[in-house]
Design goal:
This protein is α/β, with parallel strands linked by helices. About 45% of the residues lie in helices and about 20% in strands. The protein is built from 6 helices and 5 strands; from the N terminus they run H-E-E-H-H-E-H-E-H-E-H. Strands 2-1-3-4-5 form a 5-stranded mixed sheet. Helix 1 packs parallel to helix 6. The radius of gyration is 14 Å and the shape is globular. The mean pLDDT is about 95.
């Protein structure tokens, strides 16, 4: 068991593990973890195709799990680590959770929230981009390359 404060790199590596789970079940490889007090309280990965549910994004799975874990809908003292920039739906959900911080691996210049509405996040939410960006891009490229075969 690890002792001490875990880093953003540690938590993003765990989000990447979730993305790999999505890849392994033939879902778009996006993963997420939510932390509170330096501990992972929720995990999620895309499960859209298997559930036949367009809302089953990694972030949405993680938000539900985190809210259940803490027994409330607000994630004010939590951080979301996600391997791809949230879409508008997920960014909107993050607004309602009032999550404190979001750490994103790779931007999504096609479907990411910032392409459509940069002001959709809660005003108190801090967002950071670029941690594990290349790793996230690689798993996404590998997935779509496999789909085109």
């Amino acid at each position: 068991m690890e002792i001490g404060v875990k880093s953003d790199q540690y938590f993003m590596s765990k989000a990447m593990e979730e993305a790999q789970k999505a890849f392994d079940v033939d879902e778009v490889p996006v993963g997420a973890v939510i932390t509170s007090n330096n501990q992972i309280i929720a995990r999620g990965y895309n499960y859209i195709q298997h559930l036949n549910d367009v809302t089953a994004h990694a972030e949405m799975q993680a938000f539900t799990s985190a809210a259940n874990h803490i027994g409330g809908k607000y994630l004010r003292e939590c951080t979301l680590y996600v391997t791809l920039e949230p879409c508008v739906m997920c960014a909107g959900a993050s607004y309602w959770t009032q999550i404190s911080r979001i750490v994103v691996a790779a931007r999504d210049y096609k479907n990411g929230y910032s392409v459509i509405d940069k002001d959709i996040l809660h005003p108190k939410t801090i967002i950071e981009f670029g941690l594990f960006e290349e790793e996230s891009k690689k798993i996404l490229k590998d997935f779509f390359k496999k789909k085109r075969k």
